[in-house]
Structure formats: C-alpha cells, structure tokens
Amino acid sequence: MKGVPVSLLSRLAETTDDRPGAVRVGDRSLSWVELRRAATAVADDLRGAARVAVPATASLETVVGVVGGLLAGAAVVPVPPDAGPMERDHILRDSGAELLLAAPGAPDADAASPPVVPLDLARRSDTRHPEPDPAATALILYTSGTTGAPKGAVLSRRAIAACLDGLADAWAWTPDDVLAHGLPLFHVHGLVLGVLGPLRVGSRLRHVGRPHPERYAAAGASMYFGVPTIWSRIAAQPAAARALRGARLLVSGSAALPEPVFAALAGLTGHRPLERYGMTETLVTVSARADGPRRPGTVGVPLPGVRTRVVDEHGGPLPAGAMGELQVRGGTLFDGYLNRPDADAATRTADGWFRTGDVATVGPDGAHRIVGRAATDLISSGGYRIGAGEVEDALLAHPGVREAAVVGTPHPDLGQQVTAYVVGDGVAEAELIDFVARHLSAHKRPRQVRLVGALPRNAMGKVQKSRLTEV
Questions:
Q1: Do 139 and 88 belong together in one domain?
Q2: Which of 87, 118, 331, 333 minimizes the number of CB atoms within 10 Å of its CB?
Q3: Beta-bridge partners for 368
Q4: What CA–CA distances, in Å, run from 99 to 42, 43, 119?
C-alpha cells in the first residue's frame, strides 16, 4: 500500500502529535508523543534482551510494555493474565524469556520467573533505538493445538506489517479512524490488529476494558472489533446496537458470526458486519472489503500478497465451490513453532503451503466460506481457540480422574462450550471445573463435566469422540 512506512512502528517514531487521548485503555490515556517516550524508557531498560515476557492485561502498561519491547528489538512474549501456574510456567520456560516486565503492584514473581523489570508509565526517554531487521521476531504468541501444551508461534516484524498493510487496504483504514474494542491483548485479534494496527496506521485507539455493550455504545468510534459473542450481546441490547450507527465498519472475527446475529446487527446499526479469517500462525489472510459485498457466512477474499487454495484429502486441487481443506501462503505466515520442528513439518506441504486444518469452500467470485475444522479437537468458544488435549491433560492431573475426553458442544452465546466427559473416583463437577480454571486460563475451563462409567473406544483403544453424547 502506497505511503505506508516500511518499519513496523515508524508512524509512532515520527509523530509530533501531543494531543491527549491518542491511545486510551479504560479511563487512562496517553498522547502519541507520551506513548513513544514512555515506551522508549522501557526499551532503554531492555537493551540487549532477545526475548521479553509481558503480562498481557487490558491496560496501558501492556501497550507500553509491548511497544517498548518492539522498539528495543526484542521478541515480545505476551502472557495471558488468567493463565494458571502450569500454563504460565510453560510459556516462560518454553519461550526462553530473559526478562519479565511488571507494573507496580503486580504479584511478586516466583523463583521460576525470569528477572523482573519494573514498568513505570511515569518515566520518559528520547533515546533513538535502531530499527530492527524486518525479518526479526516481533512476537511469540502461544496458541493451543489439538494435543499437549500450547505452542509458541514465531511472528516476524515483516509478517505483521504485511498483515496490517493488507487490512488497511481492504478496510480503507486511515489515520482519520478511531478504533474501539474490548478484546484480550494476548492474541492476534486484540494485540496485533487491535493495538499494533492503530500504531502502524496512525489511527486512535479506544480499548473499552471489558467488552460490555454499553461500553461499545459509548466509545464513539468509526471502527469496532469484536468476536461473535460480543456482537451477539450487543445485538441483544437494541439501544447499545443503535448507538453504533455512526460507525464506519463493524468487524467480526475469531469465529463464524451466526446469521441471526448478522441480520440483527444490520437492522439495528445500519451496517452489514465485515467478517475476516485468520489464525495465529497466518495472521489475517482473508477478509471482506470495505468497498465490497458482505454476505453472512462468508469471510471475503485473500488480502494483497496472500494466495489460497482448497484441496482434497490427498492434496489435490478442487474446483470452485467444492469443499476441502483450506491452505494458504504469503507474506503474513509465521516463521514456525518455537522449538517444535515436528509441528512445523506437519503444517507445511511439500510445495510450501500452510495447512490450516479448516474446511472451506471458495465461490466463483472468490468469496471464502469456512465450513468447520478438519479435526474435532479444536474448540472455538467466545472467540478463543481451545485445544481439547490441553484441557484433558489438566483434568488428568487431578488425582481422582482416571480418564478424560473433551469436546466442543453448542452454546447459544459462546458458539461452543468446553464439555468434558470424565471417568473418576469421588470427584464432583464443580470441583473439576475449578481445578482446570486454577491450572489453565479461565476461559479454558469446562462449562460442563459429565461423569461417566467409561469412554467409548474403538478396537485400537482410541476414544471415539463422536459417540460421547451416547454415554
């Protein structure tokens, strides 16, 4: 896109705009110049560190910490604030984070944590840090797969820039926009699109904290980001939905937007929501355009520089309209999973395409429709991707659990909920839900635990998850 800086944060580095309220999180804000100087003070403290962990709360501290890490040329590792001790320790250990940024009043780090660097928003610096190589790692985002602990997806500065430039083109996103959202700041949607996007484009940001409908209604923005759960709740409050009529774009992602919610939003706000598609490993690759059609159930066309194809189970190409696995390639793809060459190999084809694991169709006009997962073990709940295997491992850590199988089951608000089937001794549903919530992120806890006498298995001993509802 013409006129967009090559370096990831050069708009922030070049600005002289000291008007208040450029970046607001909750009821606290910074001007562009204040943000740059506060983040530069953090970068001064991080000089020489290769990887830095940042507790990713919905706060100005997170924004300043992430930007400071990027200015310093470090790879930033966001840590979910609701991560239990097992998950947090895994992320810190697996990422090799050398330092941990912490705001005043944060809980004391334990012995297993890296050294803590205080994060003080009152400090300012005007040091000029050199621009890192575009190929350097910007973020290591931990994402759940179908088995085991989360894997660290390594995202380069170049890939993030390519994604954001493609979205700026597709969405006609300019410095005149004001973006509002209430998304978590430890994954692609909330952090890359929702924080680094405004910093690259030069638009203002309003993070509303918890994404309550009334907070969206009061934001007065031109663009709003949300996941289907947020949009469903806004559509259920007509007054809040009508308050968004003055917006330019309502963007939905992270899971399919139900058609009734699409229709309700269109009627109440006067805007047909714009849907897009992506993954942690690919960033956003496909999106409806601001100047193009927006049809419920479709996620648009590939962004500039991105190619897609739909293949059969043998990897053979399929014609338009046929259903098969969606594969992508282009400049937005990640560099691989940290310390996991085996997982890397499983996601790449011999000719260089990334296997998304999603089933899709592409119409004659290029419009993509995501049908579902190729596997049954990845649960999409409230905009989060949750690996069934990780929840199963947490349940099996309970001394009273002998067997566990986890699936996604329909939920009217979340899309899917985490449902666990457990064979155990002297355990109760509430006890197991609380146990998982203490060890993993709270959103990964089962919403329902069904205690059963046995799990259905095939002749090879593999649990047949399709038969769990029969037990």
A1: yes
A2: 118
A3: 362
A4: 12, 12, 12
Please tell me the total number of residues recorded for the chain in this structure.
471
Rounded CA gap, 258 and 454, in Å? 35
- DSSP, collapsed to helix, strand or coil, labels residue 174 as coil
pTM equals 0.84
Q: Could you list the residue range(s) of the whole structural domain that residue 452 is in?
A: 378-470
Question: Where residue 458 falls among pLDDT bands split at 50, 70, 90?
Answer: low
Residue with tokens 């338009």: 320
3-class SS of residue 11: helix
Cβ 417 vs Cβ 380: under 8 Å: no
Q: How many domains does the chain have?
A: 3
Residues 6+ apart with CB under 8 A from 52: 46, 69, 72, 74, 75, 76, 77, 97, 98, 99, 100, 101, 117
Both 83 and 183 in one domain: the answer is yes
Summarised one tens digit per residue, pLDDT across range 189-236 is: 999 999 999 999 999 999 999 999 999 999 999 999 999 889 989 999
Element (H, E) at 66: helix 60-71
Question: Cα–Cα distance between 120 and 288 in angstroms, integer?
Answer: 40
